[in-house]
């Protein structure tokens, strides 16, 4: 808000002011006085907001976090389980205001000095964030110097401040830090005491419109236009649209915007829902030839206490609300000729978790789970002494619904539907078999479509089935073992060991080995079979081992099919981006020979592609060489390369190059190995290295 020395002097002046309206306001306001002296420290977070998928360097989400001391930062999950702060937006915005003399526009008249308490308050309120929300990803095309077009992604972050101003930041993707900030524009909303913010994104006749929905603690809700001149194909409103103007003192707690299709009007529409006290305010926005049609109303009789949290499933438009008494309401929109109505039903968490108090709810991306934050409720009319916060998960879909949604999905990415795959995984682990209807439906999809997505889904099912039939480990895998390994030292000086000790150690080792061998291949729940004689155990184990071998063979066959499909894609990129007899770092000849090595594999597309590539290579082989001994690395295995001297290098699953360095990447499920891009790599190889795992769709770290 000003130079440090001047700010410190002003704080001391206001704290010791004889005017109680100044001194008490200053001492009790934690924005001015974050230290608080006798007050509790400002630790923790006020609010957080996740960006859409695909915003960071790994293709995952960014996290915007607002701390209790009003600092807005953006974080990224750079490496596995490691979070890194990329930028401090509060500091950057403060520097911009300082350079502009704390004026939003050039036409603003100069204000008073910092020593004036009203100016001191104004400078704080204009950069104290209340809420922040991410927009969807905007894609534009830029032309390079060689007239080649390439897509550039950007994302917007809207930050609502205490005085009603909104700062709209534009970031270029992938967001790497301060250098990725494209612009920052400030909009004056004109709303007093703003409480909540949400993006309004609407698509009509292939035109995308956007705006910002702002709610007030006094009740009003309105949409503000956001001018996106830099983003082609985006449009906005000509003027603000007031959705609710009554100052009825019902604070707006949460706003959700849901895109839907109107079955009667045969066009897309936008449903805006807002939690206001114990009621849900809804507004249906629809663009017709007459202009923008607005229908609004309130849903009453949902809760006896104010709504503390609201979430929405954007797939089907279902809205969930909860109050602190442990009651969750499910609101299902049903369209009528004119507007819509809501059917609502009660979800009693007390029947599932007992007496609980709820503090927040969220629905998973594909609507499979409802996450609920709870603490203990009242017992015999008494509140609990301590609060233990827990995150409970409630399934909203059955296994059959999740499987059907995965089969008919337009996303065709397992990683982006991980909540649905989790329901399927749980069912297979429990029943120890893949349901017949799912197997048949998946086989039909593979035969009719042949998309690699369905092959990856099949691989996922087979792996879970294989896991369900293995014996559960006796100890938890993540827990460290504190047992010291016994080592037999026979020739160490000063250590006396007798033959009896040696025999005892050998017998213990042999007995432990026999126990391990006996335990292999047993079922998870077959603990009752441990008391049977060993002969019957062996007899019952043989069919299980045969079944495991059969599933393992199926897994390897599906993995080989996915590998061949990706090899064809890599060879296609090689053919499109190389000149005649050009040496690429990709082992092209080895990949071609590997594809054609199996006589049973007859793919006309692959044969034609390989024929064209071999003509381009003109009898050149360009083999890889071991960096340790300079020997040739033959391409005999898709997972690793072994030279004649026995040096083993892992192969990158994205380009099939050997990773001849100490640092490489792995996919999220540790399925595959990938190398890091290097500065000398051409753009098409860097683009290949940005892809997800070919087996599980997971990002690569």
Could you list the spans in which at least 5 consecutive residues all have pLDDT below 50?
Answer: 486-537
Q: Report the portion of residues in β strands.
A: 25-35%
Question: Mind summarizing the main beta sheet?
Answer: 5 strands, antiparallel
Question: What is the approximate shape?
Answer: globular
Structural class: alpha+beta
Number of strands: 31
Q: What would you give as the CATH superfamily of one domain?
A: YVTN repeat-like/Quinoprotein amine dehydrogenase
What Rg is obtained from the alpha carbons, in whole angstroms?
Answer: 31 Å
What is the averaged pLDDT score? 85
What oligomerization state is this entry in? single chain
CATH architecture of one domain: 7 Propeller
Helix content: 25-40%
Query: What is the CATH first-level class name of one domain?
Result: Mainly Beta
Count of helical stretches: 14
Termini distance? Answer: 40 Å
The CATH topology of one domain corresponds to Methylamine Dehydrogenase, Chain H
């Amino acid at each position: 808000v000003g130079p440090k020395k001047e700010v410190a002097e002003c704080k001391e002046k206001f704290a010791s002011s004889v005017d109680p309206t100044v001194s008490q306001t200053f001492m009790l306001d934690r924005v001015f006085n974050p230290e608080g002296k006798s007050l509790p420290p400002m630790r923790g977070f006020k609010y957080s907001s996740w960006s859409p998928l695909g915003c960071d360097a790994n293709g995952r989400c960014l996290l915007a976090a607002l701390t209790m001391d009003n600092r807005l930062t953006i974080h990224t999950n750079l490496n596995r389980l490691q979070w890194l702060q990329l930028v401090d937006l509060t500091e950057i915005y403060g520097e911009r205001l300082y350079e502009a003399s704390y004026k939003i526009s050039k036409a603003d008249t100069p204000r008073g000095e910092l020593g004036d308490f009203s100016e001191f308050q104004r400078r704080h309120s204009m950069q104290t964030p209340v809420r922040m929300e991410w927009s969807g990803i905007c894609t534009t095309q830029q032309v390079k110097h060689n007239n080649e077009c390439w897509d550039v992604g950007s994302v917007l972050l809207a930050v609502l401040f205490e005085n009603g101003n909104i700062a709209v930041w534009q970031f270029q993707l992938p967001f790497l830090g301060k250098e990725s900030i494209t612009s920052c524009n400030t909009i004056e909303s004109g709303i007093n005491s703003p409480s909540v913010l949400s993006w309004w994104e609407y698509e009509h006749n292939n035109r995308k419109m956007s705006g910002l929905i702002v709610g007030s603690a006094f009740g009003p809700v309105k949409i503000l236009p956001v001018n996106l001149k830099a983003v082609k194909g985006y449009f906005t409103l000509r003027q603000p649209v007031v959705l609710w103007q009554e100052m009825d003192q019902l604070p707006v707690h949460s706003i959700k915007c849901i895109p839907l299709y109107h079955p009667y009007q045969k066009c897309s529409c936008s449903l805006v829902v807002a939690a206001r006290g114990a009621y849900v305010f809804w507004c249906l926005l629809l663009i017709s030839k007459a202009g923008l049609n607005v229908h609004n109303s309130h849903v009453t009789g949902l809760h006896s206490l104010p709504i503390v949290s609201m979430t929405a499933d954007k797939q089907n438009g279902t809205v969930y609300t909860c109050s602190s008494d442990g009651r969750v309401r499910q609101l299902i929109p049903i369209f009528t000729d004119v507007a819509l109505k809501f059917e609502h039903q009660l979800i009693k968490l007390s029947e599932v978790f007992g007496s609980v108090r709820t503090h927040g709810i969220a629905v998973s991306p594909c609507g499979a789970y409802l996450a609920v934050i709870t603490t203990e409720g009242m017992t015999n009319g008494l509140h609990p002494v301590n609060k233990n916060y827990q995150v409970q998960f409630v399934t909203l879909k059955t296994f059959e619904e999740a499987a059907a949604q995965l089969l008919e999905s337009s996303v065709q990415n397992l990683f982006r539907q991980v909540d649905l795959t989790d329901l399927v995984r749980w069912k297979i682990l429990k029943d120890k078999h893949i349901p017949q209807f799912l197997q048949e439906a998946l086989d039909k999809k593979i035969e009719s479509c042949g998309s690699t997505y369905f092959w990856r889904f099949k691989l996922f099912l087979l792996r879970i089935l294989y896991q369900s039939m293995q014996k559960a480990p006796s100890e938890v895998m993540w827990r460290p073992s504190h047992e010291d390994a016994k080592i037999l030292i026979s020739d160490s000086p000063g250590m006396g060991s007798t033959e009896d000790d040696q025999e005892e150690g050998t017998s213990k080792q042999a007995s432990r080995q026999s126990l391990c061998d006996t335990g292999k291949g047993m079922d998870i729940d077959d603990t009752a079979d441990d008391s049977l004689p060993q002969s019957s155990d062996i007899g019952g184990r043989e069919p299980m081992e045969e079944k495991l071998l059969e599933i393992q063979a199926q897994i390897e066959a599906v993995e080989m099919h996915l590998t061949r499909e990706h090899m064809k894609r890599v060879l296609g990129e090689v053919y499109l981006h190389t000149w005649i007899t050009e040496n690429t770092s990709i082992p092209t000849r080895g990949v071609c020979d590997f594809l054609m090595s199996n006589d049973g594999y007859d793919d006309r597309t692959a044969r034609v592609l390989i024929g064209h590539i071999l003509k381009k290579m003109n009898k050149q082989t360009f083999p890889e060489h071991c960096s340790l001994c300079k020997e040739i690395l033959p391409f005999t295995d898709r997972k690793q390369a072994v030279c004649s001297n026995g040096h083993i290098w892992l192969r990158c699953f994205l380009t099939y190059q050997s990773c001849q360095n100490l640092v490489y990447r792995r996919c999220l499920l540790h399925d595959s190995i990938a190398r890091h891009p290097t500065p000398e790599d051409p753009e098409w190889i860097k683009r290949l290295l940005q892809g997800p795992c070919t087996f599980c769709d997971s990002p690569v770290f």
